[in-house]
Q: What sequence folds into this?
């Protein structure tokens, strides 16, 4: 009885195995693709990867880095916001630089006040004092001369009436009075002449130097505010209040590298596509006046015709988006720039990867 049970179980196992093998051997119908792969619309088209950019005549998206280091104090804009040229985007802590600028402005104002004082000389009150000293010295000289004249005449009439010593003292007093008048007269002329021209020139130079220092300090202060270089759209803001930034940018926690504090693009409806053609395909590029291209948006069946703009005449190393070069050889590509106008129903953003075929009529 036991052997019959074991034999029955073996038979059942074999049947199950045969049935399972049959089921798994039946070919399954493949699922239809979500979207069709990008087809080559040209007889001899060249395939290349492309990156969507905001279209600008001179280049690609604008990566902004601060020219000074500091802590972010305020962020004025949000991603996707349209701004005008000169609008403030990000403010760094400028407390120290602002205080330095105010100090230099005060020093320049003090130098200007001193220059005005020099140019305003002679001061009326000083001139009046100097004039009074001349008048007093003149009176003293007259008094001394009168005394000397009296003693001299008395001596001439009766020598015994005036001692020789008294006469000498009178003569000396007159000389002293005359010398004093000469001194105060020259002092009056000096006061009346005002500030020395060399003192004025020296003060003007000092004021000019301080004004230039204020200008440099003010220009440095302005760099603590990152402003929009063009009319456009803020594509990315990579900082938050409290973040520390430097001219290298801001440290990104995820990539562990430095990235721009903000990225801007144009607000025009036209977008650009930077296409990287492998160096082995460069000889197959059509002439510039015959280049045609179509862009395929990945994940969709949407295609958009591209307008040729220019070839960037510099073959450069291939870009690795992972920031890790995996090639064993130096793979190089030629950038070719196109542009297009987005169509309704197709959302395309700067930084998006697209498939591009390049051909000719």
A:
């Amino acid at each position: 009885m036991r052997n019959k049970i074991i034999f029955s179980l073996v038979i059942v196992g074999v049947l199950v195995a045969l049935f399972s093998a049959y089921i798994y051997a039946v070919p399954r119908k493949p699922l239809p693709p979500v979207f069709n792969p990008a087809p080559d619309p040209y007889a001899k088209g060249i395939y290349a990867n492309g990156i969507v950019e905001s279209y600008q005549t001179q280049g690609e998206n604008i990566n902004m880095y601060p020219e000074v280091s500091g802590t972010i104090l305020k962020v004025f804009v949000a991603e996707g916001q349209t701004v005008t040229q000169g609008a403030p985007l990000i403010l760094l802590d400028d407390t120290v630089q602002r205080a330095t600028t105010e100090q230099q402005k005060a020093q320049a104002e003090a130098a200007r006040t001193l220059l005005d004082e020099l140019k305003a000389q002679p001061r009326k009150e000083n001139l009046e004092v100097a004039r009074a000293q001349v008048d007093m010295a003149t009176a003293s000289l007259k008094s001394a001369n009168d005394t000397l004249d009296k003693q001299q005449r008395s001596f001439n009439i009766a020598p015994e009436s005036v001692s020789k010593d008294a006469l000498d003292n009178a003569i000396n007093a007159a000389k002293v009075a005359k010398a004093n008048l000469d001194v105060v007269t020259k002092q009056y002329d000096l006061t009346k002449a005002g500030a020395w021209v060399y003192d004025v020139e020296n003060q003007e130079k000092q004021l000019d130097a301080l004004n230039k220092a204020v200008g440099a300090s003010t220009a440095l202060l302005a760099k603590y505010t990152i402003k929009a270089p063009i009319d456009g759209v803020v594509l990315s803001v990579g900082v938050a209040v409290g973040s520390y930034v430097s001219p290298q940018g801001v440290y990104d926690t995820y990539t562990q590298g430095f990235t721009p504090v903000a990225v801007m693009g144009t607000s025009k409806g036209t977008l650009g596509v930077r296409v990287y053609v492998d160096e082995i395909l460069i000889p197959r590029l059509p002439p510039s006046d015959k280049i045609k291209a179509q862009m395929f948006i990945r994940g969709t069946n949407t295609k958009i015709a591209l307008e040729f703009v220019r070839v960037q005449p510099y073959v450069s190393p291939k870009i690795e988006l992972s920031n890790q070069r995996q090639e064993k050889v130096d793979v190089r590509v030629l950038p070719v720039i196109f542009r297009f106008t987005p169509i309704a129903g197709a959302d395309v953003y700067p930084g998006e990867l697209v498939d591009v075929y390049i051909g000719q009529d």
Q: What stands out?
A: The chain is about 40% helix and 25% strand. The CA atoms of residues 45 and 185 lie 101 Å apart.
